[in-house]
Amino acid sequence: MIRNIKFLGIALILVGVLVPTLHFTKAKVDENKYIEVLEEKEEKQDYFAILEINEIHLKRELFPAYSKENHVDKNVLVHKMSTFPGSKESNIILAAHSGNGKNAFFKDLYLLEESDLITLYYQGVKWIYEIVDIEEQEKTGVLYLKEDYPQMITLITCTKGNSNTQTIYYGVLKESKSL
């Protein structure tokens, strides 16, 4: 009896030490014996799209709106009101810092002109947008964004040389190509 209690005590100590170091995955097994991962203990921070602007040598991953990585201090921000291509109407709203810091991903946006191209790689499709309008708005905490086109992209950053305004670049879908 003492031997069993001693063994049980040692076993409980080992379980108490080992269990916190294990990585658990919540999974569902369907009738075909395939495993579908539902939720992992550690949150993955995977990007879901890539923004590319060849004219300014920019290529950045985009993270979902709910991701901790989706912040202007870390990456190009995907605004939570964005709607993505594949639906009848879409407007991808992206914002990033300009300036000189390491996270100033839109620092060269001021070099863009109307007719320059913006590419978005999303869901196995290359979406190509053409810049059709560039405007400045005062920094008031509220932006009034155009929604003049059914399929568009909007880029927002601080205006170069003017700390009181933001520059907004509007692009219209020109073409899409399956990858």
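That was protein one. Protein two is written in the same sequence-then-structure order:
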Amino acid sequence: MHAYLFVGNQENLKNNVNNLAKKISAHVYPMQIKSIKDVNVISSFIKLAQNQKIIITIENIQNASNEALQAFLKDLEEPQKNVYFALHALNESNLLPTIISRCQVIYIGNKNNFKKDPSLLKEYFSVPLQEKLNIIDNLKDRNETIEFLDDILKLQHQILLKNPNLEMVRDIEIVQKTKRNIMLNGNLFLHLSQMTISLSQTKKTSA
């Protein structure tokens, strides 16, 4: 993965980016994107990177124009081997789904600030598969469903930070894929049920 999207307030952003830089032995370069002109500057800078590993950080990318985000997509879609992006947004609502789909989403800040009732999450993860399907069948509103998936992702990232493991990474990827499909107006129950079954299968595989 060459692009990371940090979602939340900025209080822990610098530490997260610095930890990422240490992990991959890269230099950090803060930049901005508000207009297409900014994207052109970044594209030119990337060409000069050569063999040096770099992380380009872009804070508050939700403030960029749609035209700038569309232009920036090319850099995300065709990343150079030694170039990484650490994007930051207060929330995902103003970002293009195509931007989100090309990033590993990481929630920062107050991870306990769930959008929905935490008891729903607890119930979803504690009951058998058929009861899980009954829970998701009650999610009829697209925005409500996205909030539910956001809460699952926040909980998964909490668990991953405490106990890094490949199973949780796979689970996060499954939920992120489901969220992308739903944001692109996919069928709610179809994608939620596929997600639920896939999550159950990863648990059986790791057992």
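The chain is about 55% helix and 15% strand. Keep this in mind for the problem set.
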